[in-house]
Amino acid sequence: MRAIQRGLALLALVILIGLALTPKIMAGGGIGLAPARIELSDAMRGGEYDYTLILINPGDGETYYTLGTEEGEAAAWVSYFEHEGAENPIEGILVPGDTRMPLMVRFNIPEDAANRTYEVNLLVEAGLAPPDAAAPRARRESLGGAEVMVRIASEVTIDVTGTQILTADVTSIMVENTEVNYPLRTTVHMRNTGNVDARPEVRVEAWQDGQLVREYVFAEEVIKPGANAVIMGEGDTTGMEDGEYLVNVSVRLGGQEISTYEREVSLFPVGTLTRRGDLVALEIEGEPYVGRVLRILGTFVNTGQIETMAQLVVEVYRDGSMIAIEEGREIRILPKQSEVVRAYYELNEPGDYQFKAHVYYEGRVTDTAEQTIRVTSGPAPQQEGAGESLRAALRSLLELPSLVAQGDRRALFGVGITLLMVALIYTVVSALNQRRKGDHSKA
Questions:
Q1: What global pTM score does this model have?
Q2: Does 92 fall in a domain?
Q3: Helices H, strands E: what count in the chain?
Q4: Which domain does 134 fall in, by range?
């Protein structure tokens, strides 16, 4: 037995020493990037331009992609973001296997950039693992590029000019019928086709019998060049009588009118439009242990013709007896939209819990949805005996040939640590058993 223990410890030590001397061998991989070329024409000095890239992982497993640029004068103008609206730039992203993931690249043109054409290549490198968060590029340089499996680039041409182009295309304008004292909702879809930030203004006028009854203005703060925007505004109808109104909508940009729209809109008495909705899903999130708080999430779809205030109401049962009623916060849900309504419940005792939920909206209730869970005092402590540790180590030994072939240093290091710990655990357990046997012999 002692010979086996010494053998295991020696084998673990040999593996650890070998790991320190083994060079990293990278396995094969793949990457796709779209579009392959970006042309930024009439870019203004001091301008900011956003584009969407599609990162493609054609492999089976998740892969970390490092984002950067090839050296060049315009390389410092480039930054990457995980999605539109994100505030913090990223230097890499983890993409699951067989996935097309969108991300955003931003070009910030300096105020002192000369009027001419610049070229820069967006560079994406696929590696086995993410670099150190603090200094990923420095780490790659220290490794001499050994982490890189595949590299791909997207060519970018930036034509910097002093010419300001302020234009936009309005693709649709919609004004919805509503009821008295409910908002008159207007929606404008548009795209900034210029090379500078656009700040459009939407003016809505409601006329009846040749008289201007109500007027309001709303605006989008900024639409970036090349970006699409949905501008939504609501007008107060308080004090307006039910009936037909002629609504005029005009969109202005830079003091110029670029689009107009006119239609008859009905303002109905309260209760005319249909209120209808469905609770289509119910989920319980959180750990089922005493002392934890559960999140009860219901997905409500407003299938009616007008907005509604919706609230999740949950009856809580333990072992067949109702013990509580929980109500979530009311939220407004627009027609044809779905939202998640929430409630919370703190678990105080173990048992079988049943949650019966419905959504209360505009004096109506949906059908009831149910979820059942079992609550315990807490997670059972996980203990692994020496026998299970030894079996895990033997499984790791069987995987060694494939790990060596792939050059996976992290996995090899993990196997080495596992074997070393098994040797130590087995030595201690055997010593305790021998001592126990000796005590029995003396007795």
A1: 0.57
A2: yes
A3: 4, 26
A4: 32-161
